[in-house]
Amino acid sequence: MAPCIAQNGDFLRTLAYCLNTRCADISASKLEAYWAQQATGDKTVSVEWTYGAALANVTAPPKRTDTTGDMLNYTALIADADYQYHLVFSIVLISIGVATPVFFSVLGYVPFISRATDKIKPYLIYPSFLRGYNIRPLPYLLGNAPTMGQGLCIAMFIILNIILGAVSYKNFPYSHPWAFTKSAELLAYVGYRTGHISFALLPLTVLFSSCINILLWITDWPFSTFLVLHRWVARLCALHAVVHCITLFAAYVSLGTYYTDSILWFRRTSYEVFLILHIFFAAFVIIGCWYHVYFWKPFSGVYELWIYMVCAVWFFDRLFRVLRVAQNGVRQANVIELSDEIVRLDISGVRWLSTPGYHAYIYFPTLQPLRPWQNHPFSITNTALLHKAFTSEQASSHSGDVEMSQKIPQVVISQSVAGPYRGNITCDVLKCDRVLLIAGGIGITGILSWTRAHVNVKLAWSLKESSRPLLKDLEPALSEIADKVISVGERLDVTALLEHEVEAGWKAIGVVVCGPPGLCDSTRSAVVSVGKASEAVFELEVDAFSWNLSLGQGRDSSSAGKYWR
């Protein structure tokens, strides 16, 4: 078929005119190079005319549009719909991926919709997709189960990927230009479509994992949800790439022309190795995609756009991280040991607004000179309430279990702070009549910022006997909370706490939990069960830091704390 194409004047004129009009911003030398290698679909078969000669033979702009099924015996126009056919499917996918969080966030502000949503939350939003497992990892190292709301969103996106990857294929009624059989032709179309979709999902994959994700600021979805979506979009991206390879391999083999790690246990065992490999393989994939396109269709003006997009998202994410670290500079931190498991870091001179739902990252370059990028997440709160005699603003944390306040420094280390970054959504919880704050162990550091954010709060905190020094250190802040339950050495009965709030007559109850995975999952289950059995409306926020992969499984370190004075 290629020798026939090489001498078909109508085909060559049509192709030359299409390149001239669709690729006007590409130099003539690049178009000539493309023409020499790709015009016939076979690099070993040269065309009769050069690109310039074929274009010179187009004496007048074509008037007739090419129609599938017609014999091409005229110089034809290529319809926009045909030219952008595969691109449409990719644009639909990436548009829905971005628009879905925005749509459901806006929907929550429609009065009658928001009331209906309040009723279905205990049934379709809050429950775990697999009962009892969300923050806690699944058995046999299978990762973490999404919530029901996250699962429905993921299922919708998977179904959409299947549909858009499988519909609207049709064979030509005549022999395929590259001599495919009917079955091989269909395989080739599937391969090209899935390859294009895989490229389109790359920017979405990087966007959802970014701390500078613009969707965090314009929607009411938390960072943890976007990280769940990031993992599933990445899996779909890889799956499309696998289908792309298999189908095109099978198609070209029929011609005889084919030249014959986000694993949970690994993340938890060696997070730093995982992180470096994760970045390395991501860069490897992007660079590989670039060369894949370059050697196939250099400077096509279509496929490179997706690579430019993913590079732009990644570049700006890293740039803003560096700028935020530079903004605060290198500061000295005083380290005080509160117990065998808890240390406190006091960092002065960092001034941010004290708003719940935000977190920051702290770097310790002097502790790990060969790994200056290593950082740890910290909650943000105002600690003027911890000791009224102090007015300077400070940040503090714990490594493993982290806490902050002010005592005589014993060790001084250098550190840098990056932030603040949005993690949890606060507006829905703060609109409630009553806010119940549930903390487990060091999880109190993620809860303290909420105690002054609402006029009607109740704190329930359980901690181990060995954590009493932490309780003593926080006494100034806890004394300001009128309604509180502090349990040392005993677990909280979360269901009883929720039922007590319902019996008290509160109609809208906000629940914020921060603590070990077991406490977070049991609180989610309790909110679901009590919400189904009562008329009260619940707003649940889980501040678990489960997305922080450096936290070890089974450790009481689900949140780090950063305080202000």
In round numbers, the mean pLDDT is 80
Total of domains: 4
Taken as a percent bin, the fraction of beta residues is 15-25%
**Which parts are unreliable, with pLDDT below 50 for 5 consecutive residues or more?**
389-409, 547-565
Let me know the largest β-sheet: 9 strands, mixed
Q: Please identify the structural class as seen in this structure.
A: alpha/beta
Shape: elongated
- Report the oligomer: single chain
**Distance N to C terminus:** 77 Å
> Care to count the β-strands?
14
Secondary structure tally, helices: 20
Rg, rounded, reads: 29 Å
Helix percentage range:
40-55%
Membrane topology: Multi-pass membrane protein
Keywords: Ion transport, Membrane, Transmembrane, Transmembrane helix, Transport
GO molecular function: ferric-chelate reductase activity
Domain Ferric oxidoreductase: 194-253
